[in-house]
Amino acid sequence: MSCYEYRHSSEKSYSSLYVLSVVFVFICCVVLATLRLYGLNLERKISETSGKIDVYQEQNIVLSNEFSKLSSSARIYTYAKNELGMQTDKASAVIYLNNDNVAFAKNQSQEMPVQEESFIVKINPFVKKAHAKN
């Protein structure tokens, strides 16, 4: 033996199954870390969306109140009178109809002829038997 001959400090070799299992565990850890980061990103997006929903609900309440104020009949009459120069008609009247006119209109209506029931309608037990609940 020469003095230039080197030996490994450990002659023990690792099996391929051991190396594969270490690599598999490392890959699983990387995948779990990636999934955790993705979950945190989704959680952040959900909280941002929830905040936007709250803001839009408050904005919707404000707009609904403003709409109800603007669409009230008193405000419309005031705006029409003051801004548009419109005036209410003082000679407005309600027109009532005589009962004769209504009766005359009823007599003028045309009656539809009744059709005879077909054979299928006569033998079907469910025709004209349906009853709605509530």
Characterise this structure.
Residues 103-108 have low confidence and may be disordered. The longest helix has 55 residues, at 16-70. It is elongated, with a radius of gyration of 44 Å. It has helices at 16-70, 73-82, 99-107, 119-123. The chain is mostly helical and 134 residues long.
Question: Summed up, what is this model?
Answer:
This protein has 134 residues and is mainly α. The chain contains 4 helices and no strands. About 4% of the residues have low confidence.
SS strand fraction: under 5%
Taking pLDDT < 50 over at least 5 consecutive residues as the criterion, the unreliable ranges are 103-108
The helix count comes to: 4
Q: How many β-strands, per DSSP? A: 0
The overall pLDDT average reads: 78
Distance between the termini: 106 Å
Order of helices and strands: HHHH
Descriptive key words:
mainly alpha; single chain; 59% helix; 134 residues
